[in-house]
Amino acid sequence: MPRETSIVRKTKETDITLSLRLEGEGASRVSTTVPFFDHMLTLFSLHGGFDLELSAKGDTEVDFHHLVEDVGICLGEAFRKSLGNMAGIARYAFASIPMIESLANVSVDVSARPHLVFRCPMKCEKVGAFDVELVEEFLRAFSQSSGICIHVNVLYGSNGHHTIEAVFKALGRAMADAVRIDPRVKGVPSTKGVLG
Question: What are residue 7's DSSP bridge partners?
């Protein structure tokens, strides 16, 4: 059975519809009204091999914060629901992705124990109209709603676009490896017998 789900979130600040298929082909249709964010989510989908359909709008006249955070919440919920009891998954994964002069390392533990470590020095405050601080807000929301522990370590990088792109690509690759079904894993990959 394919692992997939759909999420709808409507608040006074945002209106989001999202569909995710883990056993996908990296196909995506993403529209958040924030072009740079669309680009990053498309990269995440492609390099993770996930099929992602996302339509999101919000009070971006205030700023992009509510929209970016709520998309992180919805994407995290979609992963959590698609994974079910997490039986048979690899659980841990790591990806190191270079993007021109930038190098991002992302480690994940799909454990139902959310946590984010974000070490990503940035030399700019914006990429176009996008506030770079929102990358951390997105990842925190994604981690909390998915129950995934995420460590992001950017070793170096001078271009903000390249650095953020490396992070999203690395997250996609790490997530793909962590959620894949490993035939060697019997049941839940924990000595406790449960994850969480």
Answer: 18
